[in-house]
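note to self: dont lose this again. the chain is below, predicted strucutre after it. 263 aa total, dont forget to put it in the shared folder this time
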Amino acid sequence: MIKLVVTDLDGTLLNDQHEVPKRFWDIANRLFKKGIKLGIATGRPHFSITENFPPLMAHVYAISDNGSFIMHDKREILSKPLPHHELAPLIHTSRGIADTYPVLCGKDYWFLESEDKVLLEKVLIYQKNIKIVDDLTKVEDPILKMSVLDLKGADQHSYPHYIQFADRMKVALGGALWVDVTRTDANKGEAVRMLQQVNGISPDETLVFGDFMNDYEMMKAAKYSYAMKNAYPKIIEAANFVTEKNNNEEGVLDVIEALCFND
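---
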């Protein structure tokens, strides 16, 4: 019996226009009525979850910034900011790579040091609360995640430059154009395990969905781990199952319907 459902957003629950499927709301309420816990695990900031899911915020576990921050019913239950001394090397690395932009992701704001139109267009999809600063290395706020927007494609272009930090930080592809850096103990898989422990739920009672490498650890935290049909190949390899439909066809919702409401 499924007792916990956790889904990624972009490329997973949301369609390519970043829209929530209309029938999701009824399914979410049916999960709550059945006593099934629901988590949203995303690389997006907490603000983006509250903006898109306001009717559910009293019930849903909001796992943001790739597992670095968790809120539930207006209560902070986890916060894992990056060590502040690690930020400058990460920022300097991005500055040395053409067509990339470093972004510091705090609890309330994302910090940028450029007002380039293409950067703002990409960032505003996920976070409306932004601050433009002269020098990101001078930001003093706690930073949950450092992201790099790579206009040439993160996998082959900027990601290899960040492997040097992988011995002490979690470096993951957050999407085709994004590299995400968090603490090594901050990832979606650890967040799912925390929810399992808090609620007395086992991996055998857990259903998760993801599509990209920031979902990798989450695929290992549940018996019912589903990669999206449209997922990155390594996620499909890591998952125990693959959805029959992609994110534009509401593949997540079909699986939830089949596994959670079949009795």
